[in-house]
Amino acid sequence: MDKLIIGRYIPGSSIIHRLDPRSKLLAMFAFVFIIFLANDAIGYGILTIFTFLGVGLSRIKLSYFLKGLRPMLGLILFTVIFQMLFTTGGEVLFQIWFLKITSYSLQNAFFIFMRFVLIIFMSTLLTLTTPPLTLADGIETGLAPLKKIKVPVHEIGLMLSISLRFIPTLMDDTTMIMNAQKSRGMDFGEGNLVQKVKSVIPILIPLFVSSFRRADDLAIAMESRGYQGGEGRSKYRILKWQRSDTLLLLSLVIVTAILVAWNMMK
Amino acid sequence: MAISFDKVNYTYQPNTPFESRALFDIDLDVADGSFTALVGHTGSGKSTLLQHLNALLLPTSGTVTVGETVIKPDSKAKAIKPVRQKVGVVFQFPETQLFDETVLKDVAFGPQNFGVSKEDAQTIAREKLNLVGISDELFERSPFELSGGQMRRVAIAGILAMNPSVLVLDEPTAGLDPKARIDMMRLFETIHASGVTTILVTHLMDDVADYADTMYVLEKGRIVKSGKPQDLFQDVDFMTAHQLGVPKATRFALLLRARGQYFEHLPITRSALVEMITEAANHG
User: Fold this and answer.
1) B233 with B255, same domain?
2) Do B147 and B13 fall into the same domain?
3) d(C-alpha B236, C-alpha B258), whole Å
4) C-alpha count within 13 angstroms, C-beta hemisphere, residue B220
5) Are residues A106 and A160 in the same domain?
6) What is the ipTM of this complex?
7) Are residues B254 and B268 in the same domain?
8) Could you give the percent of chain A with pLDDT greater than 90?
9) Best exposed site among A139, B77, B161, B276 by fewest CB in 10 Å?
10) Could you tell me the residue range of the domain that residue A198 belongs to?
């Protein structure tokens, strides 16, 4: 349970930590689109430099980002191998039966790989440097314009912050229940598939029971304190847009401009 | 069965920014057949230490010896499994671990994991359920239909069903009403009397005084004091300074002492207090 790095916040005071969650979210979102502008080594080179600039500025060890990559490794490898085997065109380098590896397919596979790595690094950068609740606040204010078309933005924000708030609690519950069942001689991850699935039941049922109880308690606690969401509710954490946030968005615009210019020059 | 800790250290999430050291050079001896109390504050390392007793956690350095088995930082899962059967751990609020369709099946879950046949496991389950005071008509009910107190008894029967030689209790009476609390402690006393080594984690000094024969005081991951309860509770200043306090009987005796009553040493249980007062009255 402790090894999960995705969605984990590492406290710090770097410039990246101090950015407004809205600008970070927006930048992250834009980056996913910008990455499709790169289609050669130079393009990916520029984006890699940009990403590592962010990683460097966050003052978080590179090993954390690599750990964030690990759970996605299977998916990345699958896609890369798929690309390698089924892209056609270019000079054939290697062939077994109908499977060919060509210069194109190698190049394509490498680009896909880079695309994954950069996006994962960027999203890891976002979650490592932004406390989950601030992130939820950022999403809520970011979605605010949608209120006009009757999207329940406040409720979405509340659901988001409650779920984020309860992740550590649920993890603690899971560890506690697992410890209790291990103490009763339960083995995890052993035996065949049926046994493995069966071993989940003694964890899942108590976990469900305790989650429902917690949800109930929370609802009662909120109601007894007169909670009412939405209109007219003031905020404890107030987000502040700073010059560095404008700079971040500006740097993204510049990167985009460079990529577009480079693509047109070719 | 005896348990001993030799220079046990434990660090959570080593080599990360979340690294935190929970245990420092713990030396601890639980004699066979003893009733040992482990006291300390929240965050004193009690629960970390407790998880070393049945190898849920392996020490970062040092060794834990449970009976014949030596648990080392690099012990393998296979080697430590028998320890889980020999050392039964009743966690705080054990009723949260219930999961099966019926009370009987839930209690039989433990022994079946250690290779006991279904029939034999259910026979043991019946016996242990009766021992903790759950009557036969509840055996086929769902554990979730029971009252909180009954659920806790069922959960405890689930641990007893493994026939452990050591029983570890983590604040077993938390959240119970006074009568249920006394009944529960009497139950543990009976089990202890049948030869089961008992380790009680608690912050109720009265329970320590009434039941334990050895106690360890844990603070910030270190053992700061150990010995017999009647000796440790003599040092009222130490116990108060560590915000653990002393048993009610001791407090009563202190008040009497302040009013001029002479005590050669402070009583820790109610019966000892009564005895001392009557003796003083007879001689005075």
Assistant:
1) no
2) yes
3) 14
4) 2
5) no
6) 0.90
7) yes
8) 38
9) B77
10) 150-225
Task: Assess whether B164 and B256 both reside in one domain.
Answer: no
| pLDDT surpasses 80 at B163 | yes
Domain count across chain A:
2
CB contact under 8 A, A2 and B18: yes
A184 vs B contacts (CB less than 8 Å): 84, 97, 109-110, 113, 158-159, 162
| Mean pLDDT for all residues in chain B | 92
CB B181 within 8 A of CB B153: no
Same domain? For A20 and A118 the reply is yes
Nearest to B97 among A11, A177, A185 (CB): A177
**pLDDT per position as a tens digit, A113-139:** 999 999 999 999 998 999 888 888 888
Report the residue from B56, B77, B113 with minimal CB separation from A185.
Answer: B113
Chain A residues with CB under 8 Å of B54 CB are 183
Range of weakest confidence among A71-80, A83-92, A165-174: A83-92
Using N-to-C axis directions, what is the helix angle for A103-129 and A73-86, rounded to 10°?
Answer: 160
Closest CA to A80 of A42, A117, A47: A117
Say whether A176 and B96 touch across the interface (CB within 8 A): yes
Tell whether the model's pLDDT for residue B224 goes beyond 60: yes
Residues A29 and A159 both lie in one domain? no
In order of A105, B12, B16, B267, the CA distances from B51 in angstroms are 52, 13, 22, 33
What one-character DSSP code corresponds to residue A9? -
The pLDDT-based confidence of A160 (bands split at 50, 70, 90) is confident
- A interface residues, B as partner, C-beta within 8 Å: 2, 10-11, 173, 176-177, 179-187, 201-202, 205-206, 209-210
Please indicate, yes or no, whether residues A126 and A161 belong to a single structural domain of this protein.
no
B233 and B267 co-located in one domain: no
- Are A113 and A173 found together in one domain? no
The least confident of A71-75, B29-33, B37-41 is A71-75
Nearest to B23 by CA among B49, B55, B1, B56: B49
Q: Quick one: DSSP state of residue A234?
A: -
Question: Of B16-25, B139-148, B270-279, which gets the smallest average pLDDT?
Answer: B16-25
Cα–Cα distance between A87 and A234 in angstroms, integer? 55
Cβ-defined contact of B97 to A10 (cutoff 8 Å)? no
Report the relative pairing of strands B87-90 and B166-170 from DSSP bridges: parallel
Are both A105 and A188 inside the same structural domain? no
Q: Within this chain, do residues B89 and B185 fall inside the same structural domain, yes or no?
A: yes
pLDDT at residue A53, rounded to an integer: 93
Task: Write the residue in A173, A183, A202 that is nearest to B99 by C-beta.
Answer: A202
Domain extent for B271: 247-283
Indicate whether A3 pLDDT > 60: no
Same domain, B265 and B145: no
